[in-house]
UniProtKB/TrEMBL annotation, chain A:
One of its GO terms (molecular function) is 4 iron, 4 sulfur cluster binding. Belongs to the 4Fe4S bacterial-type ferredoxin family. RnfB subfamily. Pfam families: Fer4_21 (PF14697), FeS (PF04060). Residues 110-139, 140-169 form the 4Fe-4S ferredoxin-type domain. InterPro entries: 4Fe-4S_dom, 4Fe4S_Fe-S-bd, 4Fe4S_Fe_S_CS, Elect_transpt_cplx_RnfB/RsxB, RnfB/RsxB_Proteobac, RnfB_subfamily. This is Ion-translocating oxidoreductase complex subunit B. Binds 3 [4Fe-4S] clusters.
Automatic annotation (TrEMBL), chain B:
GO terms for biological process: electron transport chain; transmembrane transport. Belongs to the NqrB/RnfD family. The modification FMN phosphoryl threonine is found at T187. It is a multi-pass membrane protein. It is an enzyme of class 7 (translocase). This is Ion-translocating oxidoreductase complex subunit D. The gene is rsxD. It comes from Colwellia demingiae. Its EC number is 7.-.-.-.
UniProtKB/TrEMBL annotation, chain C:
Binds 2 [4Fe-4S] clusters per subunit. GO terms for cellular component: plasma membrane. [4Fe-4S] cluster 2 binds at C394, C423, C426, C429. Keywords: 4Fe-4S, Cell inner membrane, Cell membrane, Electron transport, Iron, Iron-sulfur, Membrane, Metal-binding, Repeat, Translocase, Transport. Residues 621-642 have a biased composition (Basic and acidic residues). Residues 525-548 have a biased composition (Polar residues). Part of a membrane-bound complex that couples electron transfer with translocation of ions across the membrane. Its cofactor is [4Fe-4S] cluster. InterPro entries: 4Fe4S_Fe-S-bd, 4Fe4S_Fe_S_CS, Ion_transpt_RnfC/RsxC, Nuo51_FMN-bd, Nuo51_FMN-bd_sf, RnfC_N. This is Ion-translocating oxidoreductase complex subunit C. It comes from Colwellia demingiae. GO terms for biological process: electron transport chain. It is found in: Cell inner membrane. Belongs to the 4Fe4S bacterial-type ferredoxin family. RnfC subfamily.
């Protein structure tokens, strides 16, 4: 009899709480962004393809499907950390095999630059640019829209005359980071 | 001439942390002097011992941590910790109590947490509580005021008692603590607690000689000395007035309520103010900026909380005085209090953070 | 509300802002000396951008002579403020030069060699303002290049042309920074002109009330302004308590009106406009006297100077000229801080050529004694002890100590939560910090990084959008192209179906070609039937496409195998092995017809198996065969299938030929195989030729060095695993080489068949040679 009572009590408690939890999960459902969108938001959107995917979104999709999180070279350790946080996995060191060539070790962002006298107007770089940041027409000199360039350096390789190079953006008063130690001080007599 | 680059502001009001610490150390003088006058050399010896230990510990840890020793060794924080611990210890406690307590305070409570500015607990109080919990016997070796002591507690007698447990004449600590009529004497708070436990009323209890003519013989003056020093600090803006004021107010209100409800079993408000470590805690320990709350509102909350805790521990806790425990508990809650007492930023509505 | 504010102000009651400090004022150094007119400097360096916004387009070129007041830049962009020639002279250079900015970076500057004449351009002095419309006044202000002279440099014409209902116009004469007395002196000396300027702004904005906020430490200026405004009811001179930073826009608004400027918004949203004293003066100059902003009052002060005083400095004057004028020679410090602006918010300049710009109100050259912290080589920073003095003095009621920790930890989201963006960089926290932490510097770095992060985020967002757009565009283009192709194809079809003569001609030509091909195939099928009775069932006559060719080849191979089985006298095990291997191969080739990759893999597997089996059977010759066959399968050209078929056929042929007992059949296979391959196209012919050659070579090899064959087999048996992987590549090359060789043969392209026939003949001859040798080989097998 006692056992029966115990089962009954426990069973009803379980039922009540189960119903409560079920209700809560329906009632207070949080509509989070799909994981792919969240991942995509963390990626630097250079669309460089160094991860082996044709863009940031495809890589985000791949990560959501279980791809390694350490393939984003432009994002660096910071991005890996953020992705690790989001995915709830361990932070991994960046996969060097996905860092193309002489990856920039300095922090200053780089943008592509067309050496104008060398450009033959082949439009190959235009086709390579993932963000349409190069303007120009066949047999016309091409140029980079600096504000749109993500620095992915995908346009460097296709150029048949090697007239594209990656250059660091210059320091201006608008992007200066209050690094007082770097100011050249003039010595007077 | 050459140009010299610096970030603004280019001017400074020339205050320095070591100066602040020194000011606080000076402000303890009235209380320490009162202590010396009523209780003899015991605490001064402990202070000296603690300071020596503190400086050795600080030096060792700083060199192990490869910190700029000249910079941080004499910033005064270690001296202040040692001073406060020395003041708190029972005058006749053996020397190793001080050494262990100071080592714990400096090495574990302060430096292991990252040094000055990073310790979540007040080192002196943490050291004191550690001693209280670990060495209850030694930590109750309170010495009655000199006027009640049969043995002549001069400097050498006190020193030998602390170092060996016996005076030069061979009296043991227990004998020293025993009054002329053969009763071992404790602090007024201790006496009150024991007596209340035995069912005696407060009025009956305060007939004990340790209470003296006023509130608590000797202790009242020591507390008055610290009150004086504290007021000096407030006037110099070295400490914020909010903490001690709210603490004393809270303690006053609590004891007043208790006293109104049952005058027989509760001590008076003034007894709470002027016995134990009330004033020391209010002006010198609770106001420790590192472990306290930073906003004014937060300071008030911390003070109120500390007052309540001190009263509760004194009346219903296992220990006669609760200042050290109350302060540690407040240290613990300070970050949370800070979190919820952030001031409203200019241009923001009350609600939005 | 406005009334209650006015009432309070008339009673002299002001609101207070949180915090604030009282640093040593040091205004006495310059406040009692009149503003000095300076001689003309030799050269002026005029930066193109001296305000918030963008630089204008240059109007002048190097070598041009300009008159005083002549505009040097121009733009239609409202955020662009023009600059003017402060005096007459010649433009000697237009180049990058160090500008008045804490970074010490360079910007484009116009270098003006002063001619000393100081000739004005033609001026249009306006005597009666009533004749001008508001629009004209605003245009005059804009053309005069006036930007806020208090520090930020916001274009004034935008500020005075705003539409919404303005309740308060506040004139900022607080000048709370220590040392600076430029506005103080200007108010003393030019109070009437300032009031005239205020009247112009009044006319443009029509505020309910005008409040002039002056700190109590400027009694003379207060008196002068009170006299100048005595007759005007609307203007109230408010004497506010001296406290730093009263002169901050947000703080002065709070002091005078009790309102707070909502975070992230401008005071104008709350109906408040603030103008600097010097700006009011400049407006009057511009509107009444047509004098653009080409000079300003600059306080040159500090105890390192012998004669600190206020001066009228032309914009573009390099600071070394100003310092000379104020006798800087008593500097004995090796390193000297020269601060542009006040000691609290000014920045130290890195070069003596930094020019005075519209926003520079002070040049401060402190001695080491009066400002030791400005000379400290190393930061004396120690750990924060959370004393909270910084938050006590913060005018924005921030928590500097918490901000500092978050800034050091680069926790930008926490900084955002703690409202770092509401920090006005006033420096009060760092001034009082007993731990000497350069708090403001940490905030600046954090702010710069946050700004950059935001820009990067924006850029990333833009890149994402552009990337998506591009993907969409490429997709669309692809679809469009396909449609185009389809249309074109349809058009062609339609054209063909039409009974036009050309179309029928083309059609018939195609039909004829097809017929010819069929005829050829049929004849070949005939010959094959003749050569071998087991090949009767092969559908050779209908085989037009490559698939059927492969099938044929396989079927044929099987048939031959059967024949071989009957005839062969070798141990049955080796036969079985060969059979298996071949079957595997044929299966794989069938797959090959559907999928290239699978075929390759299968071929490789088959090859591997064949190898192993052959090895286990101790038949080195067979192994060599399989080695030869599989490479051909892996050839990655467009007509793989043909090659595969050929290769298989060849393999079998070889095997058969090697088993010396069936010479007749060998001949058959030799015959059928090349013919089959030739029928499809040129390439196949080449391949066939190559195969024939390969066989020749193989035979030759077999003749010349059978020892070698054995050696290779032994070698492969020892390290078979690795070889299986690597082989398909190597032999492929071999095949290609063979093909190339066959191509190199000087045979006319038209009679390839003849060539092939020749090759076959050659091959046969060789085989016969080999036949003779097989006895020897069998011996070896026995061994």
């Amino acid at each position: 009899m006692n056992i029966l009572l115990a089962i009954l009590v426990l069973g009803s408690i379980a039922a009540v709480f189960g119903a409560l939890l079920g209700f809560a999960s329906v009632r207070f459902k949080v509509d989070a962004d799909p994981i792919v969108d969240q991942l995509d938001a963390l990626l630097p959107q250079t669309q460089c393809g160094q991860c082996g995917y044709p863009g940031c979104k495809p890589y985000a999709q791949a990560v959501a499907d279980g791809e390694a999180i350490n393939k984003c070279a432009p994002g660096g350790e910071d991005t890996i950390k953020k992705i690790a946080d989001l995915m709830g996995v361990e932070v991994q060191p960046i996969d060097d095999s996905h860092v193309s060539g002489d990856a920039p070790k300095s922090n200053r962002p780089k943008v592509a630059f067309v050496i104008e006298e060398d450009c033959i107007g082949c439009t190959k770089c235009i086709q390579a640019c993932p963000v349409d940041a190069i303007i120009g027409a066949a047999k016309q000199m091409h140029t980079i829209i600096i504000d749109e360039c993500t620095g992915c350096d995908l346009c460097v390789a296709p150029c048949p005359v090697d007239c594209i190079e990656m250059r660091e953006l210059p320091d201006t008063i608008h992007n200066w980071q209050w690094d007082l130690t770097s100011i050249p001080v003039k010595q007077l007599d | 001439m050459a140009f010299w680059i610096a970030s603004s502001p280019h001017n400074h009001n020339h205050t320095k942390t070591p100066n602040l610490m020194r000011l606080v150390i000076y402000a303890t003088l009235p209380g320490v002097l009162a202590q010396w006058y009523f209780f003899g050399w015991g605490n001064l010896i402990h202070i000296g011992l603690a300071m020596t230990t503190a400086i050795i510990c600080e030096f060792t840890v700083l060199s192990l941590r490869k910190k700029p020793i000249s910079h941080e060794l004499f910033d005064g924080s270690a001296f202040l910790t040692a001073l406060l611990l020395g003041i708190c210890l029972p005058a006749l406690a053996p020397w190793w109590i001080t050494v262990i307590g100071t080592m714990f305070a400096i090495v574990i409570v302060k430096q292991l947490y990252g040094g000055l500015g990073h310790n979540p607990f007040n080192p002196a109080m943490a050291g004191y509580v550690m001693l209280l919990v670990s060495f209850p016997l030694q930590m109750t070796l309170w010495q009655p005021p000199l006027t009640l002591v049969a043995v002549d507690l001069n400097f050498s007698n006190t020193l030998t008692t602390i170092l060996t447990g016996f005076t030069v004449e061979g009296y043991s600590v227990e004998q020293v603590r025993t009054s002329i009529d053969g009763i071992t004497m404790a602090t007024p708070l201790d006496t009150l607690k024991t007596n209340t436990g035995l069912g005696l009323t407060v009025l009956e209890s305060i007939k004990s000689p340790v209470f003296g003519e006023n509130l608590a013989l000797g202790w009242e003056w020591v507390n008055a000395g610290f009150l004086l020093g504290g007021l000096f600090l407030i006037s110099r803006k070295a400490i914020a007035w909010q903490t001690p004021v709210s603490f004393l107010l809270s303690l006053f209100i609590c004891s007043f309520i208790g006293y109104s409800i049952s005058p027989d079993s509760s001590a008076s408000t003034m007894f709470h103010w002027f016995s134990g470590a009330t004033m020391l805690g209010a002006f010198f320990i609770l106001t420790d900026p590192v472990t306290g709350a930073t906003s004014n509102k937060g300071r008030i909350v911390v003070g109120l909380l500390a007052g309540l805790l001190v009263y509760l521990i004194r009346t219903s806790g296992g220990y006669p005085d609760g200042v050290a425990f109350a302060i540690l508990l407040c240290n613990m809650s300070a970050p949370l209090i800070d979190q919820y007492t952030r001031p409203r930023t200019y241009g923001h509505q009350k609600g939005d953070k | 509300m406005v009334e209650s504010v006015i009432e309070r102000i008339t009673r002299g009651h002001f609101w207070d802002f949180h915090g604030g400090i009282h640093p040593p004022e040091q205004k006495f150094l310059t406040s009692n000396k009149p503003i000095k007119q300076l001689a003309l400097p030799k050269q002026l360096i005029i930066p193109l951008q001296q305000h918030i916004g963008r630089e204008g387009d240059l109007l002048v070129s190097i070598g041009e002579h300009v008159l005083k007041g002549q505009a040097l830049t121009l733009s239609t962009n409202p955020m662009v403020v023009p600059i003017h020639a402060p005096t007459s002279g010649t433009i000697s250079a237009i180049k990058m030069s160090v500008i008045a900015h804490p970074s010490g970076l360079s910007q484009l500057c116009v270098f003006l060699d002063v001619d000393g004449e100081d000739t004005w351009r033609k001026r249009d002095v306006c005597t009666d303002l009533a004749q001008l419309s508001n629009h004209e006044i605003i245009k005059k202000i804009a053309d005069a290049g006036i930007a806020g002279m208090g520090g930020a440099g916001f274009p004034t014409h935008i500020k005075v042309s705003s539409k919404p209902d303005i309740k308060f116009l506040i004139i900022n004469g607080a000048e709370c920074e220590p040392y600076i007395t430029a506005d103080d002196l200007l108010m003393m000396e030019q109070s009437n002109a300032i009031v005239d300027g205020i009247k112009i702004i009044d006319r443009l904005l029509t505020p309910a009330v005008i409040l002039i906020g002056i700190e109590a430490n400027k009694p003379k200026a207060i008196k002068a302004l009170q006299q100048a405004t005595a007759a005007i009811e609307k203007i109230k001179v408010c004497i506010v308590p001296t406290k730093y930073p009263t002169g901050g826009e947000k703080q002065l608004v709070q002091i005078l009106t009790g309102q707070e400027v909502t975070s992230g918004r401008l005071p104008i949203h709350d109906g408040i406009v603030m103008q600097n004293i010097a700006t009011c003066f400049a407006i009057n100059e511009a509107v009444r006297h047509d004098t653009p902003l080409i000079r300003r009052v600059v306080t040159v002060t500090g105890q390192a100077l012998n004669k600190p005083q206020n001066v009228w400095a032309l914009l573009g004057t390099p600071i070394n000229f100003l310092l000379e004028q104020c006798s800087v020679e008593n500097i004995k410090n090796e390193k000297q801080t020269v601060i542009m602006g006040g000691p609290m918010m000014g920045f130290s300049v890195s070069s003596e050529l930094v020019p005075i710009v519209k926003t520079s109100n002070c040049i401060l050259v402190p001695s080491k004694k009066e400002m030791p912290s400005a000379f400290e080589k190393e930061s004396k920073e120690v750990e924060c002890i959370r004393c909270g003095q910084c938050s006590d003095v913060c005018p924005s009621q921030l928590l500097p100590q918490e901000l500092q920790w978050s800034a050091k930890a680069k926790d930008y989201s926490q900084l955002e939560k703690l409202n770092l963006r509401d920090c006005i960089d006033c420096g009060a926290c760092a001034y009082v910090c007993p731990s000497q932490i350069p708090l403001v510097h940490y905030y600046r770095i954090a702010k710069a990084e946050i700004r950059e992060q935001q820009q990067l985020d924006l850029k990333a967002e833009k890149a994402k959008i552009r990337f998506e757009a591009r993907k969409l565009r490429l997709e669309k283009e692809k679809v469009a192209r396909q449609e185009k192709h389809q249309k074109a194809a349809a058009a062609r079809k339609a054209a063909m179906n039409k009974a036009t003569p050309e179309a029928t001609g083309a059609k018939s030509a195609v039909a004829a070609a097809l017929a010819r091909v069929k005829a050829k195939k049929a004849s070949k099928g005939q010959s094959q039937v003749n050569t071998s009775d087991s090949q009767n069932d092969l559908p050779t006559d209908t085989a037009v496409d490559q698939k059927s060719q492969v099938a044929t080849a396989i079927a044929r191979a099987k048939a031959k195998k059967k024949l071989k089985e009957e005839a062969v006298q070798k141990p049955s095990t080796s036969d079985g092995i060969v059979d298996n291997a071949i079957e595997e191969k044929s299966a794989s080739t069938q797959q090959a017809s559907t999928d290239d990759k699978k075929e390759k893999i299968a071929a490789a597997i088959a090859k591997a198996k064949a190898k192993k089996l052959s090895k286990s059977a101790e038949a080195p010759d067979l192994e060599k065969d399989s080695d030869d066959t599989s490479p051909k399968k892996t050839v990655s050209s467009d007509d793989k299938k043909a090659k595969i078929a050929a290769a298989i056929a060849k393999a079998k042929a070889k095997k058969l030929s090697k088993s010396a007992e069936v010479p007749g059949l060998e001949k058959d296979s030799e015959d059928s195989l090349p013919e089959q391959t030739v029928s499809s196209d040129d390439k196949k012919a080449k391949i066939a030729a190559a195969i024939a050659k390969a066989k020749n070579k193989a035979l030759a090899k077999a003749n010349e060095g059978k020892v070698e064959v054995n050696e290779t087999s032994l070698l492969t048996s020892t390290n078979n695993a690795t070889e299986i992987d690597s082989k398909p590549l190597q032999p492929e090359k071999m095949v290609q080489n063979n093909i190339a060789e066959s191509e190199n043969k000087p045979v006319a392209a038209t009679d390839k068949k003849a060539k092939i026939a020749a090759a076959i003949a050659k091959a046969k001859a060789k085989k016969k040679l080999k036949e003779a040798n097989t006895v020897e080989e069998n011996d070896r097998d026995g061994v």
